C-alpha cells in the first residue's frame, strides 16, 4: 500500500503539476538529507513547490493574527513561509523525527524560530483545533479521513490542500497555477429552524435553513407569509440573504452565527433593524 502511495504521488507530481518546471532536488543539511518520495507514515515526503506555497498562503489570506498548522510538515517549508513571508505563527506536525528536527533547524536558519514550532508526532493524534489555517499535502483518503475533524473546527477556519480535494465538499477556490491546490472556509452549522426576535416590529418571524457544507437554502416566515430566501450565502460564521418585505422592497440580512444563536441586522432602503435568533 505504501509503495502504491509513493508511486501515485510521484506520478501526480509530474502529471498534475506540469507548470512546475524547476524541481528542486537538494534538500536538507549536513545532519540529514531527505530524499523526495521517501516513505512516511501515511504518505511519502515531497515538498510543496515554493511558488505554490506562496499562492496557497496568499489564497488563505494568511497574516500576523493567524496560527497555521501544517499537517505532515516535511522540511517545514509551509510553516516557515507562513511565518517569514506572512507574519503568522505556525506549527508543523511531522511524524518522521529526523524531518521534524530538520524542519526546526530550517526555521532557525530562516530566522523564524520564535514563530515556528515543529512537533514530532502523528497528525491523527495531535490536537490542531486552535489553528486558524490548516495546510495539507497528503492523499485523497487522508483528506477524507480528516474531513469530519476539519468541519468541526471553528467556523471561518481556512484550509488549503495541495493537489487533493475533499470530494463533495466543493472548494471555495480552486488554484490552478503554479500547481493544483484547493481552498475551503469551514462553514458554521446553520441547518434547522431559527426563531427570530425583533426581526419584524409586529409579526413573529422564523428562518428555516437547509445546508450541505457551505451551500445553503431556505425560507423566511413573517407572520403567516413564507418566502424563499434570495441569494443565501454562508461564509464561515457569516450568513447573508435577501428577501422582499411587505412593501415589496428588498431587504438585505446579515447575521453572525455563534453555535445555536445568531445576531444580525436587516437593512432596507430606509430602515435598519437589529435582531437575534435562536435555533429551535
Ligand atoms: C507530501 S509531504 C508534505 C510536506 C509539507 N507539508 C509540504 O507540503 O511541503 C507529507 C509529509 O507528511 C508526513 N507524514 C506522513 N504521515 C504522517 C502522519 N501520520 N503524521 C504526521 N506526518 C506524517 C511525511 O513524513 C511527509 O513529510
Overview of this protein structure:
The protein is α+β, with helices and mostly antiparallel strands and 280 residues long. The chain has two domains: 18-185, Rossmann fold (3-Layer(aba) Sandwich), CATH 3.40.50.150; 192-279, Beta Barrel (Lipocalin). Helix content is 21%, strand content 34%. It contains five helices and 16 strands. It has helices at 2-15, 50-59, 77-86, 97-109, 140-151; strands at 67-71, 89-94, 116-120, 133-136, 158-162, 173-175, 181-185, 192-197, 205-212, 215-222, 225-228, 230-235, 238-244, 250-258, 261-267, 272-279. The protein is elongated, with a radius of gyration of 22 Å.
End-to-end Cα distance, whole Å, is 47 Å
Q: Count of DSSP E strands?
A: 16
Mean pLDDT: 93
Give the distinct bound molecules. S-adenosylmethionine
What is the spatial order of strands in the main beta sheet? 11-10-9-8-16-15-14-13-12
The CATH superfamily of the largest domain appears as Vaccinia Virus protein VP39
* Count of helix runs: 5
> What overall form do the CA principal axes indicate?
elongated
Rg measurement, Å:
22 Å
**Low-pLDDT runs:** 14-21
CATH topology of the largest domain: Rossmann fold
CATH-level-2 architecture of the largest domain = 3-Layer(aba) Sandwich
Topology as a string of helices (H) and strands (E): HHEHEHEEHEEEEEEEEEEEE
Q: Structural class, please?
A: alpha+beta
As a percent range, the share of strand residues is 25-35%
What's the helical proportion of residues?
A: 10-25%
The biggest sheet amounts to: 9 strands, antiparallel
Question: What is the name of the CATH class of the largest domain?
Answer: Alpha Beta
Number of domains as seen in the coordinates: 2
Amino acid at each position: 500500500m505504501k509503495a502504491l502511495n509513493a508511486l501515485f504521488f510521484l506520478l501526480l507530481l509530474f502529471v498534475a503539476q506540469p507548470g512546475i518546471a524547476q524541481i528542486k532536488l537538494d534538500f536538507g543539511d549536513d545532519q540529514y538529507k531527505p530524499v523526495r518520495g521517501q516513505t512516511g507514515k501515511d504518505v511519502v515526503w515531497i515538498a510543496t513547490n515554493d511558488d505554490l506555497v506562496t499562492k496557497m498562503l496568499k489564497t488563505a489570506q494568511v497574516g500576523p493574527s493567524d496560527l497555521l498548522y501544517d499537517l505532515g510538515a516535511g522540511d517545514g517549508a509551509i510553516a516557515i513561509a507562513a511565518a517569514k513571508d506572512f507574519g503568522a505563527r505556525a506549527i508543523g506536525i511531522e511524524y518522521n523525527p529526523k524531518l521534524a528536527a530538520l524542519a526546526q533547524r530550517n526555521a532557525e536558519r530562516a530566522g523564524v524560530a520564535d514563530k515556528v514550532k515543529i512537533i514530532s508526532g502523528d497528525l491523527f493524534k495531535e490536537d490542531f483545533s486552535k489553528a486558524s489555517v490548516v495546510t495539507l499535502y497528503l492523499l485523497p483518503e487522508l483528506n477524507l479521513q480528516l474531513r469530519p475533524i476539519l468541519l468541526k473546527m471553528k467556523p471561518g477556519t481556512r484550509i488549503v490542500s495541495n493537489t487533493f480535494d475533499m470530494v463533495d465538499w466543493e472548494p471555495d477556490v480552486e488554484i490552478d497555477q503554479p500547481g493544483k491546490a484547493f481552498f475551503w472556509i469551514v462553514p458554521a452549522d446553520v441547518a434547522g429552524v431559527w426563531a427570530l426576535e425583533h426581526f419584524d416590529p409586529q409579526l413573529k418571524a422564523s428562518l428555516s435553513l437547509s445546508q450541505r457544507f457551505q451551500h445553503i437554502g431556505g425560507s423566511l416566515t413573517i407572520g403567516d407569509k413564507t418566502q424563499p430566501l434570495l441569494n443565501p450565502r454562508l461564509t464561515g460564521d457569516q450568513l447573508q440573504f435577501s428577501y422582499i418585505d411587505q412593501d415589496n422592497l428588498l431587504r438585505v440580512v446579515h447575521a453572525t452565527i455563534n453555535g445555536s444563536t445568531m445576531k444580525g441586522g436587516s437593512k432596507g432602503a430606509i430602515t435598519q433593524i437589529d435582531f437575534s435568533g435562536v435555533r429551535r
